[in-house]
Write a structure and sequence with these properties.
Blueprint: H1 3-10, H2 17-32, H3 40-58, H4 65-87
Helix pairs in contact: 2-4, 3-4
């Protein structure tokens, strides 16, 4: 376990808690916006929007931890979707 996982385990969270949160954010994003990113320009536009929302929450007089966490999870979800939709090209096996 890495140090962060050890901290979560000490607080009663299971080892893959963060990964499950990110995957849930990806599923929610796909449900709201089912069309895949067409290219990296599209993905970067969405990522810029999410980073802007994080920035706006961060610079509030009293940023809320839950809102910051939600924005960070959405940023992670955008990154995973970009990998899946744009850059991940599985090789075709030839026989």
């Amino acid at each position: 376990m890495n140090p962060l996982q050890e901290q979560w385990a000490a607080r009663g969270f299971k080892k893959d808690f963060l990964a499950e949160c990110v995957l849930a954010a990806v599923a929610e994003a796909r449900a709201r916006h089912p069309q895949p990113y067409v290219d990296m320009h599209h993905a970067m536009g969405v990522l810029d929007e999410e980073v802007h929302e994080l920035r706006m929450e961060t610079y509030k007089r009293s940023p809320r931890a839950a809102a910051l966490q939600e924005e960070l999870l959405q940023i992670a979800a955008v990154c995973l979707r970009a990998i899946e939709d744009v850059t991940f090209k599985p090789k075709c096996s030839r026989k």
